[in-house]
Task: structure prediction
Amino acid sequence: MKRRTSSRTVGFVLTGALVLGACSTTSTTSTGSSTPATSTPSSIAPAATKDLVATAVGAGQFTTLAKLLTSAGLVDTLKGAGPFTVFAPTDDAFKKVPAATMEALSKDPEALKKVLTYHVVAGKVPAADVKAGAVKTVEGEDIKVSISDGKVQVNEATVVKTDVFASNGVIHVIDSVLIPPSMAAATGSSGTTPAAATKDIVDTAVGAGQFTTLAKLLTSAGLIDTLKGTGPFTVFAPTDAAFAKVPAATLEALGKDPAQLKKVLTYHVVAGKVLAADVKPGDVKTVEGQPLKITVDGTTVKVNDATVTKTDIVTSNGVIHVIDTVLLPPAA
Result:
Protein backbone atom coordinates (compact mmCIF):
# COMPACT_ATOMS: atom_id res chain seq x y z
CA MET A 1 0.00 0.00 0.00
CA LYS A 2 1.69 3.20 -1.14
CA ARG A 3 1.35 6.58 0.46
CA ARG A 4 0.38 9.42 -1.83
CA THR A 5 3.29 11.76 -2.49
CA SER A 6 3.20 15.53 -2.68
CA SER A 7 2.60 15.31 -6.42
CA ARG A 8 -1.02 14.48 -5.62
CA THR A 9 -1.48 17.71 -3.72
CA VAL A 10 0.47 20.28 -5.71
CA GLY A 11 -1.43 19.63 -8.94
CA PHE A 12 0.03 19.44 -12.41
CA VAL A 13 3.41 21.20 -12.53
CA LEU A 14 4.42 22.08 -16.06
CA THR A 15 8.00 21.04 -15.44
CA GLY A 16 7.01 17.77 -13.81
CA ALA A 17 5.11 15.74 -16.34
CA LEU A 18 6.04 14.32 -19.74
CA VAL A 19 8.97 14.91 -22.11
CA LEU A 20 7.00 14.39 -25.28
CA GLY A 21 8.74 17.12 -27.21
CA ALA A 22 12.16 15.58 -26.63
CA CYS A 23 10.97 12.20 -27.85
CA SER A 24 9.07 13.21 -30.97
CA THR A 25 10.42 14.43 -34.27
CA THR A 26 7.21 16.14 -35.32
CA SER A 27 4.50 18.16 -33.69
CA THR A 28 1.02 17.77 -35.18
CA THR A 29 -1.71 20.36 -34.89
CA SER A 30 -5.42 19.85 -34.95
CA THR A 31 -5.40 20.71 -38.65
CA GLY A 32 -3.31 17.65 -39.40
CA SER A 33 -0.17 19.54 -40.53
CA SER A 34 3.21 18.46 -39.22
CA THR A 35 6.22 20.65 -38.49
CA PRO A 36 9.62 19.77 -37.02
CA ALA A 37 9.65 19.79 -33.23
CA THR A 38 11.67 22.66 -31.81
CA SER A 39 12.39 24.23 -28.48
CA THR A 40 9.97 27.04 -29.21
CA PRO A 41 8.35 28.25 -25.97
CA SER A 42 4.99 26.61 -25.32
CA SER A 43 3.25 29.97 -25.17
CA ILE A 44 3.56 30.13 -28.96
CA ALA A 45 0.95 27.49 -29.85
CA PRO A 46 -1.01 27.07 -33.08
CA ALA A 47 -4.23 29.06 -33.13
CA ALA A 48 -7.33 26.92 -32.64
CA THR A 49 -10.95 27.98 -32.74
CA LYS A 50 -12.68 24.72 -31.76
CA ASP A 51 -12.97 23.52 -28.17
CA LEU A 52 -11.73 20.12 -26.99
CA VAL A 53 -15.00 18.31 -27.64
CA ALA A 54 -15.51 19.78 -31.11
CA THR A 55 -11.87 19.07 -31.96
CA ALA A 56 -12.20 15.45 -30.87
CA VAL A 57 -15.42 14.98 -32.82
CA GLY A 58 -13.90 16.58 -35.90
CA ALA A 59 -10.84 14.33 -35.77
CA GLY A 60 -13.05 11.32 -36.51
CA GLN A 61 -11.15 8.82 -34.35
CA PHE A 62 -12.69 9.64 -30.97
CA THR A 63 -16.37 8.79 -31.55
CA THR A 64 -16.53 6.40 -28.59
CA LEU A 65 -14.87 8.93 -26.30
CA ALA A 66 -17.31 11.63 -27.42
CA LYS A 67 -20.31 9.39 -26.74
CA LEU A 68 -19.02 8.47 -23.28
CA LEU A 69 -18.36 12.10 -22.40
CA THR A 70 -22.01 12.77 -23.21
CA SER A 71 -23.18 9.82 -21.09
CA ALA A 72 -21.06 11.00 -18.16
CA GLY A 73 -22.31 14.59 -18.42
CA LEU A 74 -18.81 15.95 -19.09
CA VAL A 75 -19.36 17.65 -22.45
CA ASP A 76 -20.14 21.07 -20.98
CA THR A 77 -17.09 20.83 -18.72
CA LEU A 78 -14.71 20.09 -21.59
CA LYS A 79 -16.34 22.79 -23.72
CA GLY A 80 -15.73 25.28 -20.92
CA ALA A 81 -12.89 27.75 -20.44
CA GLY A 82 -10.48 25.19 -18.96
CA PRO A 83 -7.79 24.94 -20.03
CA PHE A 84 -7.33 21.16 -19.97
CA THR A 85 -4.87 18.58 -21.25
CA VAL A 86 -6.62 15.42 -22.41
CA PHE A 87 -4.97 12.05 -22.97
CA ALA A 88 -7.53 10.80 -25.48
CA PRO A 89 -7.99 7.08 -26.26
CA THR A 90 -8.89 6.38 -29.89
CA ASP A 91 -11.83 4.26 -31.00
CA ASP A 92 -9.36 1.39 -31.47
CA ALA A 93 -8.24 1.83 -27.85
CA PHE A 94 -11.82 1.43 -26.62
CA LYS A 95 -12.16 -1.75 -28.70
CA LYS A 96 -9.53 -3.34 -26.45
CA VAL A 97 -11.78 -2.91 -23.42
CA PRO A 98 -13.85 -6.04 -22.64
CA ALA A 99 -17.50 -5.70 -23.61
CA ALA A 100 -18.56 -6.55 -20.06
CA THR A 101 -16.50 -3.66 -18.75
CA MET A 102 -18.03 -1.20 -21.18
CA GLU A 103 -21.50 -2.42 -20.28
CA ALA A 104 -20.81 -2.08 -16.57
CA LEU A 105 -19.50 1.47 -17.03
CA SER A 106 -22.53 2.42 -19.11
CA LYS A 107 -24.73 1.44 -16.16
CA ASP A 108 -22.65 3.36 -13.63
CA PRO A 109 -22.33 7.05 -14.60
CA GLU A 110 -20.21 7.88 -11.55
CA ALA A 111 -17.68 5.13 -12.35
CA LEU A 112 -17.66 6.24 -15.99
CA LYS A 113 -17.02 9.82 -14.91
CA LYS A 114 -14.08 8.66 -12.77
CA VAL A 115 -12.55 6.79 -15.69
CA LEU A 116 -12.95 9.70 -18.11
CA THR A 117 -11.67 12.41 -15.76
CA TYR A 118 -8.66 10.19 -15.07
CA HIS A 119 -7.64 11.06 -18.66
CA VAL A 120 -7.76 14.83 -17.99
CA VAL A 121 -5.16 17.11 -16.41
CA ALA A 122 -5.75 20.73 -15.42
CA GLY A 123 -3.86 23.24 -17.58
CA LYS A 124 -2.83 23.41 -21.22
CA VAL A 125 0.42 21.49 -21.48
CA PRO A 126 1.94 21.10 -24.96
CA ALA A 127 4.51 18.37 -25.61
CA ALA A 128 7.45 20.74 -25.31
CA ASP A 129 6.59 21.61 -21.70
CA VAL A 130 6.17 18.23 -20.11
CA LYS A 131 8.50 15.70 -18.48
CA ALA A 132 8.36 12.23 -16.96
CA GLY A 133 6.83 11.80 -13.53
CA ALA A 134 3.61 11.44 -11.57
CA VAL A 135 0.84 13.84 -12.57
CA LYS A 136 -2.39 14.53 -10.74
CA THR A 137 -5.54 14.15 -12.84
CA VAL A 138 -8.88 15.89 -12.57
CA GLU A 139 -10.23 12.60 -11.18
CA GLY A 140 -7.81 13.05 -8.26
CA GLU A 141 -5.40 10.16 -8.70
CA ASP A 142 -2.03 10.22 -10.42
CA ILE A 143 -1.08 9.01 -13.84
CA LYS A 144 2.53 7.91 -14.30
CA VAL A 145 4.37 9.26 -17.32
CA SER A 146 7.49 7.35 -18.37
CA ILE A 147 9.97 7.35 -21.24
CA SER A 148 11.88 4.35 -22.60
CA ASP A 149 13.75 4.03 -25.88
CA GLY A 150 12.07 7.12 -27.25
CA LYS A 151 8.60 5.80 -26.42
CA VAL A 152 6.39 7.82 -24.09
CA GLN A 153 3.80 6.07 -21.97
CA VAL A 154 1.01 7.18 -19.66
CA ASN A 155 0.66 4.30 -17.23
CA GLU A 156 0.89 1.52 -19.85
CA ALA A 157 -0.77 3.42 -22.69
CA THR A 158 1.51 4.66 -25.46
CA VAL A 159 1.29 8.24 -26.68
CA VAL A 160 0.87 7.97 -30.46
CA LYS A 161 0.30 11.64 -31.35
CA THR A 162 0.86 14.91 -29.53
CA ASP A 163 -0.26 18.53 -29.65
CA VAL A 164 -3.73 18.37 -31.14
CA PHE A 165 -4.56 21.91 -30.11
CA ALA A 166 -8.00 23.21 -29.15
CA SER A 167 -9.20 26.63 -28.09
CA ASN A 168 -9.38 25.52 -24.46
CA GLY A 169 -6.56 23.04 -24.20
CA VAL A 170 -4.61 20.32 -25.97
CA ILE A 171 -5.11 16.64 -26.77
CA HIS A 172 -2.40 13.97 -26.71
CA VAL A 173 -3.58 10.71 -28.31
CA ILE A 174 -3.07 7.36 -26.53
CA ASP A 175 -3.61 3.78 -27.67
CA SER A 176 -5.23 2.32 -24.53
CA VAL A 177 -7.91 3.31 -22.04
CA LEU A 178 -6.64 4.32 -18.59
CA ILE A 179 -8.18 3.14 -15.33
CA PRO A 180 -7.79 4.84 -11.94
CA PRO A 181 -5.76 2.69 -9.49
CA SER A 182 -8.69 2.76 -7.07
CA MET A 183 -10.81 0.95 -9.65
CA ALA A 184 -8.22 -1.65 -10.64
CA ALA A 185 -9.67 -5.14 -10.33
CA ALA A 186 -8.22 -8.35 -8.96
CA THR A 187 -6.58 -9.17 -12.27
CA GLY A 188 -3.66 -6.96 -11.31
CA SER A 189 -4.48 -4.22 -13.79
CA SER A 190 -1.71 -1.63 -13.81
CA GLY A 191 -3.68 1.22 -15.26
CA THR A 192 -5.10 0.32 -18.66
CA THR A 193 -8.04 -1.61 -20.08
CA PRO A 194 -9.80 -2.41 -16.78
CA ALA A 195 -11.77 -5.46 -15.90
CA ALA A 196 -15.12 -4.57 -14.39
CA ALA A 197 -15.46 -5.16 -10.66
CA THR A 198 -18.61 -7.23 -10.90
CA LYS A 199 -17.70 -9.98 -8.41
CA ASP A 200 -18.22 -9.67 -4.67
CA ILE A 201 -15.47 -10.08 -2.07
CA VAL A 202 -15.92 -13.85 -1.70
CA ASP A 203 -16.04 -14.60 -5.42
CA THR A 204 -13.08 -12.30 -6.05
CA ALA A 205 -11.02 -14.06 -3.37
CA VAL A 206 -11.92 -17.50 -4.69
CA GLY A 207 -11.11 -16.47 -8.25
CA ALA A 208 -7.71 -15.08 -7.25
CA GLY A 209 -6.55 -18.59 -6.34
CA GLN A 210 -4.37 -17.58 -3.38
CA PHE A 211 -7.05 -17.40 -0.69
CA THR A 212 -8.34 -21.00 -0.64
CA THR A 213 -7.74 -21.40 3.10
CA LEU A 214 -9.46 -18.10 3.85
CA ALA A 215 -12.45 -19.10 1.71
CA LYS A 216 -12.79 -22.43 3.51
CA LEU A 217 -12.62 -20.81 6.93
CA LEU A 218 -15.19 -18.18 5.96
CA THR A 219 -17.52 -21.05 5.06
CA SER A 220 -16.84 -22.82 8.37
CA ALA A 221 -17.52 -19.61 10.29
CA GLY A 222 -20.78 -18.90 8.45
CA LEU A 223 -19.51 -15.59 7.05
CA ILE A 224 -19.98 -16.22 3.35
CA ASP A 225 -23.40 -14.58 3.13
CA THR A 226 -22.17 -11.57 5.09
CA LEU A 227 -19.22 -10.92 2.79
CA LYS A 228 -21.39 -11.48 -0.26
CA GLY A 229 -23.80 -8.84 1.03
CA THR A 230 -24.00 -5.17 0.10
CA GLY A 231 -21.33 -4.04 2.55
CA PRO A 232 -19.17 -2.30 1.67
CA PHE A 233 -16.24 -3.91 3.46
CA THR A 234 -12.48 -3.61 3.49
CA VAL A 235 -10.79 -6.99 3.96
CA PHE A 236 -7.16 -7.50 4.93
CA ALA A 237 -6.85 -10.94 3.36
CA PRO A 238 -4.12 -13.41 4.40
CA THR A 239 -2.85 -15.57 1.57
CA ASP A 240 -2.58 -19.36 1.72
CA ALA A 241 1.13 -18.85 2.46
CA ALA A 242 0.15 -16.66 5.44
CA PHE A 243 -2.10 -19.37 6.85
CA ALA A 244 0.71 -21.89 6.33
CA LYS A 245 2.69 -19.97 8.97
CA VAL A 246 0.00 -20.58 11.60
CA PRO A 247 0.73 -23.62 13.80
CA ALA A 248 -1.39 -26.61 12.81
CA ALA A 249 -2.64 -26.96 16.38
CA THR A 250 -3.96 -23.39 16.30
CA LEU A 251 -5.85 -23.93 13.06
CA GLU A 252 -7.24 -27.21 14.37
CA ALA A 253 -8.47 -25.51 17.53
CA LEU A 254 -10.12 -22.75 15.52
CA GLY A 255 -11.77 -25.36 13.31
CA LYS A 256 -13.44 -26.81 16.40
CA ASP A 257 -14.56 -23.43 17.75
CA PRO A 258 -16.74 -21.58 15.17
CA ALA A 259 -17.34 -18.63 17.48
CA GLN A 260 -13.63 -18.05 17.99
CA LEU A 261 -12.95 -18.60 14.30
CA LYS A 262 -15.54 -15.96 13.50
CA LYS A 263 -13.79 -13.50 15.84
CA VAL A 264 -10.46 -14.11 14.12
CA LEU A 265 -11.87 -13.69 10.63
CA THR A 266 -13.93 -10.57 11.37
CA TYR A 267 -10.78 -9.09 12.93
CA HIS A 268 -9.56 -8.88 9.32
CA VAL A 269 -12.59 -6.86 8.19
CA VAL A 270 -13.27 -3.13 8.44
CA ALA A 271 -16.63 -1.53 7.66
CA GLY A 272 -16.61 0.67 4.58
CA LYS A 273 -14.60 0.70 1.36
CA VAL A 274 -11.15 2.06 2.27
CA LEU A 275 -8.80 2.33 -0.70
CA ALA A 276 -5.03 2.56 -0.37
CA ALA A 277 -5.07 6.31 -1.01
CA ASP A 278 -7.36 6.81 2.00
CA VAL A 279 -5.49 4.67 4.53
CA LYS A 280 -3.73 6.57 7.30
CA PRO A 281 -1.50 5.46 10.20
CA GLY A 282 -3.34 4.81 13.44
CA ASP A 283 -5.95 2.53 14.91
CA VAL A 284 -8.95 1.36 12.90
CA LYS A 285 -11.91 -0.47 14.37
CA THR A 286 -12.67 -3.90 12.93
CA VAL A 287 -16.00 -5.67 12.50
CA GLU A 288 -14.86 -7.97 15.33
CA GLY A 289 -14.81 -4.88 17.57
CA GLN A 290 -11.14 -4.50 18.46
CA PRO A 291 -8.81 -2.14 16.58
CA LEU A 292 -6.03 -2.87 14.14
CA LYS A 293 -2.90 -0.74 14.24
CA ILE A 294 -1.81 0.68 10.87
CA THR A 295 1.83 1.77 10.62
CA VAL A 296 3.77 3.23 7.71
CA ASP A 297 7.53 3.15 7.18
CA GLY A 298 8.43 4.62 3.84
CA THR A 299 6.46 2.61 1.28
CA THR A 300 5.94 -0.32 3.67
CA VAL A 301 2.55 -0.51 5.33
CA LYS A 302 1.78 -2.89 8.17
CA VAL A 303 -1.42 -4.00 9.84
CA ASN A 304 -0.36 -5.03 13.32
CA ASP A 305 2.67 -7.21 12.42
CA ALA A 306 1.42 -8.21 8.97
CA THR A 307 2.85 -6.53 5.87
CA VAL A 308 0.52 -5.36 3.13
CA THR A 309 1.80 -6.94 -0.10
CA LYS A 310 -0.89 -5.82 -2.55
CA THR A 311 -3.58 -3.18 -2.42
CA ASP A 312 -6.83 -2.15 -4.06
CA ILE A 313 -8.31 -5.41 -5.29
CA VAL A 314 -11.62 -3.73 -5.95
CA THR A 315 -14.83 -5.79 -5.76
CA SER A 316 -18.49 -5.01 -6.24
CA ASN A 317 -19.03 -4.69 -2.48
CA GLY A 318 -15.70 -3.49 -1.17
CA VAL A 319 -11.96 -3.84 -1.51
CA ILE A 320 -9.30 -6.39 -0.57
CA HIS A 321 -5.78 -5.59 0.61
CA VAL A 322 -3.47 -8.62 0.73
CA ILE A 323 -1.37 -9.34 3.85
CA ASP A 324 1.36 -11.87 4.53
CA THR A 325 0.41 -12.86 8.09
CA VAL A 326 -2.79 -13.92 9.81
CA LEU A 327 -4.09 -11.40 12.34
CA LEU A 328 -5.20 -12.52 15.79
CA PRO A 329 -7.37 -10.38 18.07
CA PRO A 330 -5.61 -9.57 21.36
CA ALA A 331 -7.99 -11.81 23.30
CA ALA A 332 -7.62 -14.77 20.88
Q: What stands out?
A: Residues 238 and 326 are 6 Å apart (CA to CA). The first helix runs from residue 52 to 59.
